[in-house]
Amino acid sequence: MNILVIGAGVLGLVTAWNLNEDGHDVTIVDKIGKYAGASHRSFAWINANHKLPESYHRLNAAGVEAHESLQKEFAAQGTWFHQRGCILSDSTSDAQENYTARVQESNEFGYPVETVDRARLLELEPGIAWPTDTALFFPKDGHLDNFTFGDLIDDLLAKAGVDVGVREVENVETTSSSAEVTFADGGVESFDQVVIAAGAESGPIAARSGLTLPVASLDSPGPRTHSLLGITAPTEVALSRVIISDRINVRPRSDGSMFVQVPPVEHRTEEGESTELLEEVRTVMEESLQELFETAIPVDEVVFSGRSFPEDGVSIVGYLDDAHRIYSLVTHSGMTLAALLGRLVANELDGGKEELLEDFRPSRFRHGIVPESSDSFIGKQ
Ligand SMILES: Cc1cc2nc3c(=O)[nH]c(=O)nc-3n(C[C@H](O)[C@H](O)[C@H](O)COP(=O)(O)OP(=O)(O)OC[C@H]3O[C@@H](n4cnc5c(N)ncnc54)[C@H](O)[C@@H]3O)c2cc1C
User: Where along the chain do its domains lie?
Assistant: First the structure.
């Protein structure tokens, strides 16, 4: 089949690569270029941690496993998936209750978790001045070098003769035999199938095509759709894995720097992006890093980062139209799910039906949008 993938973020790239592997004639376009959206400013914690409901947990757990397999398959190309686990530390007065609930939930789902004491915390992360005596350790979690991963898939595509074209899609119309795509440059081209993987802008593309795809708009910023992501200078301070807490989230990057988020300032995304805000947040991040590592770590940059957030919080994967020519692929757990969804979507475009995706079909919105539950899970990604 002749298939167009709209968007060269992590999801579009992996999907295009899988479709090409299956022998399809694939075109991939991005209005700006590879990794221009959320994929290039993602914390990229790979996890199935407190992903509810259970079917969403199962999808994310399979996502973690898909990264494990892909990393093994392409080990000679480098390391991008670091499965060193995640430590969750809660210093609030509800910590004990929260830990108990999380351990119970993880046990019910069969997702490994360990309650760790101070000695074990120091063994795992000796560079941290731990604010709590106990924490939870999730050994299956990890983090992804998002750029290394994107480059790997882009290289595999290029070797197969598929390059990302810089082109903006205006809309898609279906006929009985094809999907007619109109580009912003005025061109019109015909494809057998189209995959909309344009992140936060997938909703507007669908709307211009007369279809419904409820993805939160980035026009009214807030903690649901945006995050303040800090990037530190490279540092000698030891950090091996993802740390999630009510005060600060950190994870190592391959060049020795770290990604940082400070949950108590996330609400300030409501103010919208400004130089003053980014400067103030940079100061708060440096103070929080000083507290956590008891040493100064400069923050080089703070990014006001928009997510691709389905209105009800869980992935939207499946055909949008009755003729089955326009397929949607939007999720805010895109780093965790990329390796898995790329394969499952290709299987479905080949005519298969993936049971893991059944709860995430766009058809659920025919009955309206059930908003996401107001669960204030720390570090929710
Ligand atoms: C701060 C932050 C932290 C995150 N943390 C995590 C995490 O810890 N774990 C996790 O799993 N996920 C995380 N995510 C989410 C994850 O990064 C995203 O789900 C993922 O990157 C989405 O990838 P995508 O390919 O769908 O979209 P994007 O990366 O946004 O790519 C969409 C692409 O479509 C292009 N496009 C848009 N409109 C058009 C058009 N009309 N025509 C052509 N091209 C178009 C854009 O230019 C863009 O390049 C985080 C996101 C953010 C912002």
Answer: 2-44+147-215+310-367, 85-142+219-306
φ, ψ for residue 192 (rounded to 5)?
A: -75, -40
Mind listing the pLDDT tens digit for each residue in 284-340?
999 999 999 999 999 999 999 999 999 999 999 999 999 999 999 999 999 999 999
**Which atom of ligand 1 lies nearest, measured to the CA of 332?**
19
Burial of 347: CB neighbours in 10 Å, binned 0-12, 13-18, 19+ = middle
Nearest to 12 by CA among 185, 215, 150, 183: 150
Cα 58 to averaged position of ligand 1 atoms, centre (Å): 21
Expressed in angstroms and rounded, the spacing between residue 307 Cα and the centre of ligand 1 is 6
The answer to whether 209 touches 200, Cβ cutoff 8 Å, is no
The closest-lying atom of ligand 1 relative to the alpha carbon of residue 199 is: 27
| Contact status, residue 226 vs residue 335, Cβ threshold 8 Å | no
Q: From 211, 244, 316, 381, give the residue whose CB has the most ligand 1 atoms within 8 Å, as the site to mutate.
A: 381
Can you name the residues that pair with 250 across neighbouring β-strands?
243, 260
The yes or no reply on domain 2-44+147-215+310-367 and CATH 3.50.50.60 is yes
Return the CATH number of 85-142+219-306, one of 1.20.120.420, 2.40.37.20, 3.40.50.300, 3.30.9.10.
3.30.9.10
Can you list the residues of the chain whose pLDDT is less than 50?
A: 376-377
Report the DSSP pairing between strands 169-174 and 179-183. Answer: antiparallel
Instruction: Name every protein residue with a CB atom under 6 angstroms from any ligand 1 atom.
Output: 6-12, 29-32, 36-39, 41-45, 168-169, 197-199, 201, 205, 227, 229, 305, 307-308, 331-336, 381
Prior bond to 53 cis, omega within 30? yes
Atom 26 (ligand 1) nearest CA: 199
